[in-house]
Write the structure tokens for this entry.
Amino acid sequence: MSKKKLCQVSDIPTDGVKTFKIDNLDIAVFSVEDSYYAIDRKCTHLKGNLARGKVKDKTIQCPLHRSVFNLESGVLLNHPGTLAGWFKKAKNTKVYKISEKGNELYIEI
Ligand code: FES
């Protein structure tokens, strides 16, 4: 695991999201209540774009079939809410540790 500079703190909108491609990874970084959470951008169900999902408390809901993931742990909290969930199950996803130093954010990948 290595720590890499991600961006300036100001690059992530307050209570918003920004996406990054780093080392062949596609990552969405969320700003939630003065904390930052990095998660694989593609949902583990059918690759829905979690960067367009709905954040509530410290969870993200996929915009396609409403799977819900914990932003801190990547644990799947709710399975897909439509018939699509019968054909393919979602699973836990990957999260990455974010740290802040001065005006910069770093990610461990
Ligand atoms: S693609 Fe995310 S729940 Fe189906």
Notes: The radius of gyration is 14 Å. The chain has a mean pLDDT of 94. Residues 84-87 form the longest helix (4 residues). Strands lie at 3-8, 17-22, 25-32, 35-40, 54-56, 59-61, 68-70, 76-78, 95-101, 104-108.
